[in-house]
């Protein structure tokens, strides 16, 4: 829970601007049930309000509004490394919230979120163990001046309530210099609208 609370804080209060993408994507590997990062070294942001992650995250391709029951909408989660360092075992996290403030994940009965794994050529659900639309879903690595592009998609079902929503994407990784766990995150606000009415 410590990491989830920290992730919400980072995602909703930090202005994380993605750097220019300068090279081809690095490896993105499927992980059947990735665990949360180890808390042994602590969070970089704890006690360091001025800390900024080296890696940058962005969400691209989502519309501003999604009608309930309108099917799948594709977007891309990008994590960019503008530095000279190499980062291994970047834990990927994503979710869809029913509010802009904080983070309250939708149940999977209302909103589905999936990530595409190129090695298996399959879309996999992003969920937690309690049936909510958020969770860790894979890991990757980044060499100097490279980035990860993760194809993702969201399905807002007819049962989803009309109103505010927010998609979140993030990566957890070890900052060797500061000897702590860093979080890079980005959010995208959207509006869920009523299902479209078909007229003859």
From TrEMBL:
Keywords: Signal
Leader peptide range in chain numbering: 1-29
Keyword set includes Signal: yes
Highest taxon of the lineage: Bacteria
Keyword Signal found: yes
InterPro entries per UniProt: TAT_signal (IPR006311)
The protein's name in its UniProt record: Uncharacterized protein
Classification lineage: Bacteria, Bacillati, Actinomycetota, Actinomycetes, Kitasatosporales
